[in-house]
Amino acid sequence: xxxxxxxxxxxxxxxxxxxxxxxxxxxxxxxxxxxxxxxxxxxxxxxxxxxxxxxxxxxxxxxxxxxxxxxxxxxxxxxxxxxxxxxxxxxxxxxxxxxxxxxxxxxxxxxxxxxxxxxxxxxxxxxxxxxxxxxxxxxxxxxxxxxxxxxxxxxxxxxxxxxxxxxxxxxxxxxxxxxxxxxxxxxxxxxxxxxxxxxxxxxxxxxxxxxxxxxxxxxxxxxxxxxxx
Length: 229
Ligand code: 5RP
Fold this sequence. Notes:
By secondary structure, the chain is an alpha/beta fold.
């Protein structure tokens, strides 16, 4: 099966977690896009009543375009669930996220959610995190100093993410540093702790112990992995 069909299968399957009355965090990326499209269809055709909280401007636009009612996270006490994509997940359900540069809002929304459901195709499942370059959101102020500090902590090379000829700016007006931590990153919790201690680091694309369920689309069908597995 081609990758796009796998993404669609995972994205749509995740909608089984959504029922009337839920406040739902809406992740960012090309897999969760299918979740948002399916939720929009259910809102329009089945009268599904939900409130969505988008994790990026791109997701906000997509959700608006398919008619999902949206709210600011600050106006809601708690979210029932967030559905989001990932760049890698390991057997402990630690994640590397931020390939789509939305990691800060994604983490804020995930922390505010009772449950995190991740949608992924089989390329995202790894034994150890680290082959995917670790995204780190940093301030624009003194960014090169922060980049050097990150390299010192991680002992690996890094690059500032570009968008064409310009440095990419996140929805929050920050830069992204991608760190070549591979082939493996053995202690995600300690790595996150060390990086967050650098003043210019705004957030790290490691989501440790936050994910509860992975909806994994493989050639032979969709598998639902839960944390106990
Ligand atoms: C955005 C993310 C995405 O969820 C992650 O990059 C996966 O995206 P895709 O489903 O397009 O592969 O973390 O910041």
